[in-house]
Amino acid sequence: MLTVMGHPDDAELWAGGTLARHAEAGAKVTIAVPSHDPVRDAEAAAGASVLGASLRLLPELTTSTIAGLLAELSPDVVITHGPRDVHPDHRRACRAVLDALPMPVITTGHPQRVYTCDSYNGLSLDGPNAPHTIIDITTTFTTKMRALTAHRSQPIDEHFGPMAETLARLHGGRIGTAYGEAFTPVPVLGRLPASDFL
Q1: 174: in domain
Q2: What phi, psi does 189 have (nearest 5°)?
Q3: Parallel, antiparallel, or unpaired for β 180-186 and 113-117?
Q4: Which CATH number characterizes residue 36's domain?
Q5: How far apart are CA 164 and CA 32, in angstroms?
Q6: Distances (CA, A) of 16 to 51, 72, 73, 138, 156
Q7: What percent of the chain has pLDDT over 70?
C-alpha cells in the first residue's frame, strides 16, 4: 500500500487509521510526501513509525518521481488526495499520481486499486465529498490520533485533531461503528475491482 500526500501530516489525518489497520494485517505500507524541513521531516518519520509504515521523503511530487516510486514498489493499492481537494498542494499531488498511473499499470498490473481520501471538513471545491468506501478504524483510531500528534509543529490540538475526530465519528456513524475513514475509488484504466481491503 502506497499513500502519496502533499504534506507530512496528511497521511495520518486522512488515512491514518486505515494505514495502521492494513499494517497490523501484514501489509507493507509506505507513505510518500515531499521533504519540507528537518523538523517536519522528523515528524513525518515519527508519525509513519506509529502507524507501522515506512516513509519516503521525495524532493518533490512530480509525475516522474511518482512513476519511479510506483515502478519500484509495485503497490497493490495507492491512496492520494482528491482531484478537487480545496488545498492546491493536494490537487497537485493527486495530479502527479493520476498522470503517473498508466504506464506502471500497463507494464506491471500495479497498482490494482487507487483511492482518493477525504479532505478538510469533508469538502471539495465542488461541495461535500460523497465517499463510496468507508473503512472501520475503531480499533486503530487511537493509533491514528497518536501518529497525528507526532506533528507537534502543526496546530493538531487546536485544528487538525478535532477535525480528524469529527470526520472519523461521522464516517463511523455512517457504517454503524465508532470511527471510520472515507475513500473514493478511482478507475484504473477503466477498472474498479472488488476487494475485501482497500
Answers
A1: yes
A2: 50, 45
A3: antiparallel
A4: 3.40.50.10320
A5: 20
A6: 7, 23, 20, 12, 14
A7: 96
pLDDT of residue 154 exceeding 90 = yes
Q: What's the mean pLDDT in 25-33?
A: 97
Structurally, the chain folds into a number of domains equal to 1
Q: Who's near 174: CB < 8 A, 6+ residues apart?
A: 134, 180
CA atoms within 13 A on the CB side of 184: 17
User: Among 71, 6, 13, 51, which Cα is nearest to 33's?
Assistant: 6
pLDDT in tens, 108-121: 999 999 999 999 99
Buried b (16+ CB within 10 A) or exposed e, 123-160: ebeeeebebebbbbbbebbebbbbbbbbbeebebeeeb
Span 41-69, mean pLDDT? Answer: 97
Amino acid at 59: P
Report how far Cα 111 is from the mean position of its chain's Cα atoms.
15
| Identity of the amino acid at 31 | I
Domain ranges, residue 159:
2-186
The two beta strands, 2-4 and 30-34, are parallel
Confidence of residue 198 (pLDDT cuts 50, 70, 90): low
Say if 194 falls within a structural domain. no
Residue recorded with cell 497525528 = 148
Cα 90 to the center of its chain, rounded Å: 11
Contact predicate 96/59, CB 8 Å: no
| Residues in CB range of 169: below 8 A, 6 or more apart | 178, 179
In a domain, 38, yes or no: yes
Q: What would the grid cell of residue 14 be?
A: 486522512
